[in-house]
Amino acid sequence: MEEHFILRVPQSVADRLDKILNEDPASASDDFLDLAFQDARTGKFTIGDDQFPASLHDLPCVLESYKTYDDNVLIKTADIGQIIMVRERGDTAPDGPEYKHGLTPAMRDARRRRFRREPDINPDLIQQVENDLQSIMAGGTARDVDILLRCC
C-alpha cells in the first residue's frame, strides 16, 4: 500500500503546477515546489517565489485509489482519508479538522445528510448499565430492578 492524499489548489496555482510537472526535466525552470507544516494542520505551500497558506483536513469518508498497468485490471493502491487545501492569500480555511463537503457536488455536507447521527444518550445511563452488567456477570443482580415471577 502507498500513502496518498488529495492536493486541492486554486486555478492559478494549478496552471503553474501543471506547467512544472509537464516540462522536460532537461530544461527545468527555477520554479520549485515545497510543502511545510508549522503544526499538525496548518502550513505553507511554496511554488517558485510565491507562498500560499495550506491546511490539512480529514475527508467525511474514506476514498480508494487504484492504478492499472494494462488498462484492464485495477489494483487498489491506497485508502485516502485526508485533503491538503491550498488557498489564495486572504481566503479563510474551512472550520474544524474535518472538511465537511467531500470532493464532489453530490457529497456536499455529506456528514449531515448521508450518515447516521450519533444518538443522544445520557453518559450516566451508560455508566449505570455498565455497572449493572458487571454486577450480573459477577453473580449479583442489577440495581433498581423489580423481578416479577408469573406462573402459568
Could you walk me through the main structural features you see in this protein, from its secondary elements to its overall organization?
Pfam families: TAFII55_N (PF04658). Keywords: Nucleus, Transcription, Transcription regulation. The chain has helices at 11-22, 110-114, 123-137, and strands at 6-8, 33-37, 42-47, 50-68, 74-86. It has 152 residues and is an alpha+beta fold. The protein has one domain. The chain is elongated, with a radius of gyration of 26 Å. The mean pLDDT is 86.
Produce a short descriptive summary:
This protein has 152 residues and is α+β, with helices and mostly antiparallel strands.
How are the SSEs ordered, and which strands pair?
Blueprint: E1 6-8, H1 11-22, E2 33-37, E3 42-47, E4 50-68, E5 74-86, H2 110-114, H3 123-137
Parallel strand pairs: 1-5
Antiparallel strand pairs: 2-3, 3-4, 4-5
Protein name: TAFII55 protein conserved region domain-containing protein
GO biological process, one term: transcription initiation at RNA polymerase II promoter
Subcellular location: Nucleus
